[in-house]
Amino acid sequence: MSKLVIGGRSFTSRLIIGTGKYRSYEEMRSAHDASGAEMVTVAVRRVPLDRSSESFLDYLNPDLAILPNTAGCYTAEDAVRTARLAREALQTDLVKLEVIGDQTTLFPDNEQTLEAARILVKEGFVVLPYFTDDLIMAKKLLDAGCAAIMPLAAPIGSGLGVQNPANLRIMRQQLPDATLIVDAGVGTASDAAIAMELGADGVLMNTAIAEAADPAKMATAMKLAIEAGRLAYRAGRMQKRLYASASSPLAGVIK
Amino acid sequence: MNLYVNGEAREVEVASLAELVALLELPVARIAIELNREVVRRGEWERTMLKDEDRIEIVHFVGGGARV
């Protein structure tokens, strides 16, 4: 299978997973191991000053690439500051850019996202922006120099599955060379397979695994679904037809 | 001297950013610091002198996710 390439780094796994909402670090670690993911995303927050805090990063498999995100930022300025802090702390130029526009939907503020993307690309970041499934926005983000585009499939953490197959398909067809990663909305394995069958190069998810009753088992299911969906996309599916088409030859049937 | 550290007012007697980090007994690995909205590189903590009313943000990494 061909590899997923992001900012010059190549990954065998097309699954990128989150680190939030797990019931324990041990559960997170076993889900990460089961998923086969090679990259995980982490959030940047203030260090608590009143108590000693163990380093969350120590619980991650050291082989994983770390993709810091700007989750929780509502302005381009805060997202840029967060990305700069993440780069300083981790010595990585990767950033998952999220600029949220609304607390209830967690839909992105595309205008602020684009503004932040332009600044960060100029500063040498490898920018992976989360945005609404809009082709024109995708083109602007790519023109700005983003390394990948990461449209949502449904609201973050909703588990609704792919709500926008037509928009994702259009984006794939119109931007065949872009690295397209579906970010947010997947609820179960078939959703991930659908995203891949639509031509996504990868899927980023968190809640679907973390909130499963058995996260490690769901992580395995996601791994397989992404591989299956990718294979099906590459295989080229049959055309749909309205009526039946017999699989067995008509000639030679006994009378 | 009064500083604002992660949004909280703190009365401390320190000269440099490095001294503040030591005073707060923070784990030094994989944190990053902003002084008045500009990142201060780790190698600069020692020679970065603080003054009254400076605003400092000290961050680390947590699990997440877009939960806000």
- Summed over residues and divided by their number, the pLDDT of chain A gives a mean of 95
Multimerization state: heterodimer
> SSE order of chain A in H/E notation?
EEEHEEHEHEHEHEHEHH
Total helical segments of chain B: 1
Q: Which band does the percent of strand residues of chain B land in?
A: 35-45%
What is the strand arrangement across the widest sheet of chain A? Answer: 5-4-3-10-9
**Major sheet details of chain B:** 5 strands, mixed
Which outline of chain B best applies? globular
Tell me roughly what share of residues is in helical segments of chain A: 25-40%
Strand count, sense and barrel status of the largest sheet of chain A are: 5 strands, parallel
The neighbouring-strand order within the major sheet of chain B is 2-1-5-3-4
Low-confidence stretches of chain B: none
What radius of gyration of chain A results from the CA coordinates? 20 Å
**Largest interface, counted by CB within 8 Å of the partner chain's CB:** A-B, 42 and 30 residues
Describe this structure in words.
The complex is a heterodimer of chains A (255) and B (68). Chain A is an alpha/beta fold and 255 residues long. Chain A has helices at 25-35, 76-90, 110-122, 135-143, 165-174, 189-197, 207-210, 215-235, and strands at 4-6, 9-11, 15-17, 39-46, 65-69, 94-97, 126-131, 150-151, 181-183, 202-205. The model of chain A has no long low-confidence stretch (mean pLDDT 95). Chain B has 68 residues and is mainly β. Chain B is 10% helix and 35% strand. Chain B has one helix and five strands, in the order ββαβββ. Chain B has one helix at residues 17-23; strands spanning 2-5, 8-11, 32-35, 38-40, 55-63. A five-stranded mixed sheet of chain B has the order 2-1-5-3-4, with no helix packed on it. The chains are: A alpha/beta (255), B mainly beta (68). At the A-B interface, strand 4, strand 5 and helix 2 of A face strand 3 and strand 5 of B.
